[in-house]
């Protein structure tokens, strides 16, 4: 029986930091982003990275977010598409980090029929 790994989408408004040593990210390592609202057109695998000013700056996928980013703050936002939500503005400063932040595993196993 085969197993399928399903990544749960990071809730919009969560705060992540790029920690990857991948050369494709090298000039951005350490940057902090918010996760933007997902688009029905793009789907839940298209993760928008929102900069400090509220600009939907670039995209990645769920696999990349699970391996290349550390989650600094998980949002309780339950509407992944942001229906009737305000447009994201500037990001508020994060509280002082304690150094105990870590990557949160978001992989669930599911049986494939």
Report on the architecture of this protein:
The chain is mainly β and 113 residues long. The chain has one domain. Strands 5-4-3-2-6 form a five-stranded antiparallel beta sheet, with helices on one face. The chain has a two-stranded antiparallel ribbon with strand order 1-7. 18% of the residues are buried.
Helix content: under 10%
Q: Low-confidence parts, pLDDT < 50 over ≥5 residues? A: 98-113
- Principal-axis shape: globular
Strand content: 25-35%
Assembly context of the chains = single chain
Q: Radius of gyration from the CA trace?
A: 15 Å
Strand segment tally: 7
What would the average pLDDT be, to the nearest integer? Answer: 80
In angstroms, what separates the terminal alpha carbons? 8 Å
Q: For the largest sheet, list the strands in their spatial order.
A: 5-4-3-2-6
Query: Mind summarizing the main beta sheet?
Result: 5 strands, antiparallel
Would you list the SSEs in sequence order as H and E? EEEEEHEE
List the helices and strands and how they pair.
Layout: E1 3-7, E2 15-18, E3 32-35, E4 47-50, E5 56-60, H1 62-68, E6 69-73, E7 107-111
Quick overview:
This protein is mainly β. The protein has one domain (3-111).
Name the descriptors:
6% helix; 1 helix; mainly beta; two-stranded antiparallel sheet; five-stranded antiparallel beta sheet; single chain; 113 residues; globular; 28% strand; disordered C terminus
